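Tip: read the tokens left to right.
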């Protein structure tokens, strides 16, 4: 039995373009919004509603001014970039319905609708976890650098006097052994007398 392949183009098996757009829009994992250059929001998908903690109706009513921290200096830069190049990508500070601020990453492109109106498509991602991880990493690096700065180590050969046991530094100056080691390491000294020195210095206390 031979299966006959269809000569129909692939587009005949695809849904209506408007239906396909709606399926992609609503099921996207990233926040998607259809907006206008003036800041009006015309549509928002379910992921955008989750990110901002608002319903679709609330997002459309609030517009850009209600969703983004307008005091963020990066906003003006991104707006200027989009106006100049037709697209923009960067990070902003957004606002949830309870007023809490959080970081987002946005990508925005300007295009012309079929009726000739300027529209913008925005992709939004909540990067709170990523920023928290970066902050923890930077703090850890700072702590490690601070710890390393406090660590003092000795390496290589140390010129030491065979008689008095003083150590010569790189400048040619001689230092007491204990002082030198204390200055260049985290070590300190506690003093006692070894058996040989006790026998030499205090023979009267020599053990029988």
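Filled-in amino acids:
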């Amino acid at each position: 039995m031979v299966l006959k392949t269809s000569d129909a183009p692939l587009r005949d098996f695809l849904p209506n373009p408007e239906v396909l757009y709606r399926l992609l829009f609503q099921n996207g994992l990233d926040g998607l919004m259809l907006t206008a250059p003036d800041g009006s929001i015309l549509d928002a998908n379910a992921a955008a509603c989750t990110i901002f903690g608002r319903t679709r109706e609330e997002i459309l009513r609030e517009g850009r001014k209600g969703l983004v921290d307008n005091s963020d200096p990066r906003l003006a830069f991104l707006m200027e970039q989009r106006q100049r190049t037709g697209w923009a990508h960067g990070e902003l500070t957004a606002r949830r319905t309870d007023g809490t601020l959080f970081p987002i990453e946005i990508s925005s492109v300007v295009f012309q609708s079929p009726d000739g109106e300027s529209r913008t498509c925005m992709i939004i991602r909540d990067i709170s976890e990523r920023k928290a991880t970066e902050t923890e990493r930077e703090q850890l690096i700072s702590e490690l650098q601070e710890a390393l700065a406090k660590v003092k180590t000795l390496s290589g050969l140390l010129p030491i006097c065979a008689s008095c046991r003083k150590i010569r530094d790189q400048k040619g100056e001689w230092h007491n052994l204990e002082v030198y080691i204390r200055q260049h390491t985290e070590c300190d000294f506690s003093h006692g007398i070894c058996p040989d020195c006790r026998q030499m210095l205090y023979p009267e206390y020599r053990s029988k």
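The two ends are 111 Å apart (CA to CA). The first helix runs from residue 17 to 27.
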